[in-house]
Description:
Elements: E1 14-16, H1 25-29, H2 36-41, H3 43-47, H4 53-56, H5 58-65, E2 76-78, E3 81-83, H6 92-105, E4 113-116, E5 121-124
Parallel strand pairs: 1-2
Antiparallel strand pairs: 2-3, 4-5
Amino acid sequence: MAQLYKNTKITFNAVDPGLVRGTGHIEKYSTLGRSFLTKFSVLPWVWLFLKTPKQGCQSIVYLAVDPMVNNVSGCYFSNCEIKEPADVVKDSNLAKLLYDKSCRIVNIDKDKIQLNMETATPSANSEN
Length: 128
């Protein structure tokens, strides 16, 4: 998306809030939350290293309000810093497949989407 909108005022970035307390991710999606013994022996210690909700949202707030990153697009942020993403993220063929599938899911004809460079905002053709 950042490449498609690179000559506009629209930016796209990925943000990793990290593991945040109270989200239920460890209990629902990790093997740590499945074992009775693990819940009582490991989770109390893991909890010490999880971020608070306030800490987890810092990168999101940073991108939303800091004027220093107004023109930064196509980056991966963690702990308010640009980090190197995984190699799979850099795969342009996979990015195209994701874009195409996303357009199908939300029922958008990607061929009818145009960029209005004068106002730097996306607009859809009036034809349906």
